[in-house]
Each structure stands twice: as C-alpha cells, then as structure tokens.
NADH-quinone oxidoreductase subunit F (Pseudomonas weihenstephanensis), 451 residues
Amino acid sequence: MSLTSFGPANLIKRSAETHPLTWRLRDDGEPVWLDEYQAKDGYAAARKAFADMAQDDIVQTVKDAGLKGRGGAGFPTGVKWGLMPKDESMNIRYLLCNADEMEPNTWKDRMLMEQLPHLLIEGMLISARALKTYRGYIFLRGEYTTAAVHLRRAVEEAKAAGLLGKNILGSGFDFELFVHTGAGRYICGEETALINSLEGRRANPRSKPPFPAAVGVWGKPTCVNNVETLCNVPAIIGNGVDWYKSLAREGSEDHGTKLMGFSGKVKNPGLWELPFGVTARELFEDYAGGMRDGFKLKCWQPGGAGTGFLLPEHLDAQMYAGGIAKVGTRMGTGLAMAVDDSVNMVSLLRNMEQFFARESCGFCTPCRDGLPWSVKLLMAIEHGEGQPGDIETLLGLVGFLGPGKTFCAHAPGAVEPLGSAIKYFRPEFEAGIAQATPGVPPLARPIVIGA
C-alpha cells in the first residue's frame, strides 16, 4: 500500500511549497532521522519560534492560519490553544499528543510517526513553547510498535541535540517529552478518556466542563492535539499564514493540506497529501485508480467507520468539512473506504456495530445497551430471522444514540453509518425480515442485551 503523495502516474512532485507534511519522506519508506531531517530544514521553524516570536504570537499565527484538528472533530486549533490559562502562576501544564489512532480504516498518523518522527517532535516543541507547557506525552496506540520504537529513538536524538530537555536552544525554556503506549481502546481517542487512561484510571470520558484546558492531566491545564494537527505547526510558523491559506482549493472553507486516502477494492489503495477542496472523485479515480477489474463501486465512507455512507453520485463533493456536510455526513479522518457491489450491507453494518459495541466504555446507558441491541437485531436480519418492526427499531436506536443523547460522541459516530445504510440500502435489510410468528407481537420477542 502506498504511503506517499505521488499519484499513480507520479504526476505530482512533492515539494516544501505544496506538500508541507510529506515532502521530506524518503522514497524507500525508511525513517528520516535527525541529521537528514535537519538537512531538509528540520527544526528551522522551531528555531524561528524560539528566537523571533513571542509565545502569544505563535498562538495567534496558528489561529490566523485557520488550522483545524485533523483527528476527525475539526475544532480550530488556535481557539483551543487560546483556552489555556494566561495566569503565569499556573506553571504546571501539559501538552498531550493524541496518537491513539483506533478509527477503523485510518492509518495516516501511523505513517507520520513511523517515517517522520521528528516532524511530530518539532510540532510539539513549538506548541509547547506557545502554550508554556513544560512536559508532553505522546499517547500512542499500543499496537503501533514500530512507531513507538521510532519515536523513542527520535526523542533521544532530539535530547542529545539540545532540542528537548533543559534550556532548549538557549532560551531558558524546558520541555520534556515522553512516549506512552496505551492498552488499545477505541474510546481513548476521546481526549478526556485519554487523560484518564494516562493517569492510570479507567478510560471513561469525563464530564465537560471543566474542559482539559482548565482541569486536565492530574488536575492541571492540558492541551490535547492530534498527530497530524501538530505536524502542521512547523510549516505554518516557517512559511506564514498567507502561504498556508493558499494551499487549499478554491471553494474550500478549510485551509492547508490533508492526508487523504482510499482503501477497499480499488486499484491503488494508498495515502496522499492533498489540498483541502479536492473532490472525492479525483481522490478515487486519479489517485486510487478506481475499482479493480470485476468490481463496481456500491458506496463509500469519507473518513473512517464512524462516518455515514455515500453513493457514487456523491463523489463530486469537495473533501473538506463543509463539502462533505453538504452531502449528508462528516469528513472524519479523510481516509475513505470503497465498498464494492459484492458486499452485503447488513453484514457490513453488523461487523461495524460489533466493533463499536465492544469498544464502548459502558458509562452511559444508551451507548452501553443500545449498541449491543443494534448488533442483536442486525445478526437476526443477517440470518434471515428479523421480525417486522426491526428496521424501525434500528432507526429508533439511531435517533436515541444521536448527537446530544449520550455522554460522549462514541455512540453518535457508531450509529451514523447504520442510519445512512438503511437510508440508501433498505431493501437489503428488508430481505432479512422473516414472516411474523402468528399471535406474537413483532416487538415482543426477547432481546438479550450483552449476551
């Protein structure tokens, strides 16, 4: 699988001017270590931030650039940074990198950490300077063992070069950075569940407010950003706001570039750095090469398992948050999945909902009981044993578990693909409905939650 920003015919050449995240990648896929990274202008932005910019100016620059979170939620990064307290007496604060990339069909952060570990470290160093945080943690998905090895080596290289630790670049600023591997829970992608896990607690989301910027790790002000988000910071500081805004395509309300990809039975599955505003059709046809011979595109998801399904006719949508919202779902992580015409949607949804039900933290009732209920119904329909009213019950669960109905966003993301699948492929669900048992009300059959 390709992890570069080249198109299938190598028509696009990566450069620092157009591909700030990936231009330093090696063609052989090996990591870019410190000497090579610095030879490719690595840490130049950090030196600029430390020597020429006030801390508040760094925050303002990121805010003016319009950088948004790349983990799926898309919250403005500069706004989040601005929530950190201004009180200088609060000298214990933390910067957390959310590297718990557990979203199915998403591997963009893995590529950055495995091949460009110093880009993440530089991004965290500049961010720590801006936020006045003295300690940082990379909370890494436990299964990313290669990324852990590469990050730890890069941290040691940065320490030896005086880029981490005490009195960085002679500025009097101290910043320690640690790589912390998690135990493998999807819910840790939620920032407060991540904080609980880092503290050694059960990975349940916390009630907000207070937000982490006020009360985070060990009760101290904390900022949590995604890997790809932090990796954008050096280029913004190094090249400026106007340059960063100029990268996106016309019509996009989001700025900069984004790691996007396509998986499934496409000819050239891979990951590419592309400007916001590129159409999904361009991503699917020009980069992923369209479907393999003998397969037809049935539907697709724009950014992970927690986004709704779209039809081939929606491929002309622009890949940015607002562009995908216009066709009825979220951009999510930006790594799309093609579903071919051999796939039964009921089986696909049963598999997805099993994953989401298993990964629920169990804290709130709608998520804890509702997701297993959806699995039970889908299993029955999959085996041709569904009962009249089951589809309506599933749609009811989509409503009961929607945004604002649960403690965190886990359940709303879990049921979004379910609702869209029923919307577009209801006959496949209806085909699994058996004849009702005479004398038995359709919804009276027992549903054993959690069995």
About this structure: Residues 257-340 form a domain with the Ubiquitin-like (UB roll) fold (CATH 3.10.20.600). Residues 1-11, 440-451 have pLDDT under 50 and may be disordered. The two ends are 38 Å apart (CA to CA).
